[in-house]
Design goal:
Layout lengths: L3 H33 L5 H55 L4
């Protein structure tokens, strides 16, 4: 169970960080439009838009991978705990059984 909270935090924070990058990329794009005036070229805008899309994709990919990994590890931990509980109950039954 150690480290699972970090993985859960990453799975939640990564998409938000990606969205932050999207907002920053769009700010760059709008700033470029403002300083270029009416003569703005597509290649001037494409850098900010690309930054926005790349950070979105990166955040989503990291978030999805971390989310799947977290849930997989939680399921494994729960299975181990259930097996330990079953073994403990069986052992306690042996201890409580009358001696023959």
């Amino acid at each position: 169970e150690k480290g699972l909270s970090i993985l859960a935090t990453i799975s939640g924070a990564a998409p938000m960080i990606g969205f932050l990058g999207t907002v920053i990329g769009m700010i760059v794009t709008f700033h470029t439009m403002k300083i270029s005036g009416a003569g703005v070229e597509l290649d001037q805008l494409s850098g900010g838009i690309m930054q926005a899309m790349v950070t979105t994709v990166a955040g989503l990919v990291i978030g999805i991978v971390a989310y799947v990994a977290y849930n997989t590890l939680v399921a494994r931990v729960n299975k181990v705990v259930q097996n330990m509980e079953a073994s403990t109950i069986a052992f306690m039954d042996v201890l409580e059984a009358p001696a023959k």
